[in-house]
Fold this protein.
Amino acid sequence: MKQYDFDEIIERKGTDCFKWDALPAMYGRDDLTPMWVADMDFRSPDFVMEAIRKRCNHEVLGYTMPSNGYWQAVTAWLQKHYNIQATKDELHFIPGIVAGIAYTLLCLTQPGDKVLVTTPVYPPFLNLPRESKRTLVHSPLIIHDGRFVIDFDDFERKAEGCMLLILSNPHNPAGTVWGKETLQKIADICESKGILVISDEIHADLTLPPHKHVSYSTVSEAAARHSFTFMAPSKTFNIAGLGSSICYIANHDLRKRFFGWLDALGVAGGNIFAFTAAEAAFKQGDEWLQQMLTYLHGNVQTLDNYLKENMPKVKAVLPEASYLAWLDFSDYGLSHKELANRLLNDARVALNDGTTFGGEAYQCCFRLNLGCPRTTLIDALHRIKESLEV
């Protein structure tokens, strides 16, 4: 069995890498350790790269289509890992999940319609409804025993009159895994109020032991009836630059409406390498994924131990899935401006500002990406600690 090296330091500067090469534009300096953009600094799997190289040997890059092998790989992965018994007709390629959410908003809602989100949440969940002139409704999450939970009294009250819920499952920014009971409650409320649900499950494959991901559509007939499930190999296998995602819809009428709209836009074509890489990843990726998750779990433990021993004032929501942690620095008594300045200019670490996940309520919070070699993580944590001791 091949052993993969996740301690390897790979130089990404100068490769048009958004995470590294956009630092001057986004943060005003380029001498930062970037722990913001949600991709990993691990090498993309060798079997994915080999499949791409093999495809390049046929030196015609014309219009393409998903092969039968691609669809077989996708359906087998969904069945094996999530008990989703999908047929090819129930699936549709989309060029990225953010694009898929935007398409859903435009296809199924009108300007002014209410869209429900649970905050803090991945910024496009907030920006897409706003920019498309929908009415955004926030139901703030609460922290209980160090993890995010849904305030169902608030959620049910806020759900009244909403047309659509955009659900992050697992939740981003902190990788919270919603259990079956929580998802069933969401489904019951949404069904009773006639709300459609987008379940963004891009981090599902990154669920860390002992947690288990439950796909929203599988928890009840009601959930299957009113939901759109978005998944992708992009976060899992670090191939986000290929724009390869999948939409699953069990409901025939919703499927006909939405897939027909997508086909009219001409977005089913994808690109040669999106299909090639996804097929290789889903067919050959189990062992690589298990090794990567073991390493990632070690990074989560490293972060947890470091904070407890060196920065006990930091209140962390640690990921149960994904490589994203939510850090609350409010006990340091610093303003948002001062915190941001110290982290950026003293620690020289680029983190995601908590306010972008839901507003001023999160002004002392930052999201940290720990999908990196452990030495990089430890070095960044040392510098954060030193910056807060000034």
Observations:
- The chain has a mean pLDDT of 96.
- Residues 107 and 258 are 7 Å apart (CA to CA).
- The chain is about 40% helix and 15% strand.
- The radius of gyration is 21 Å.
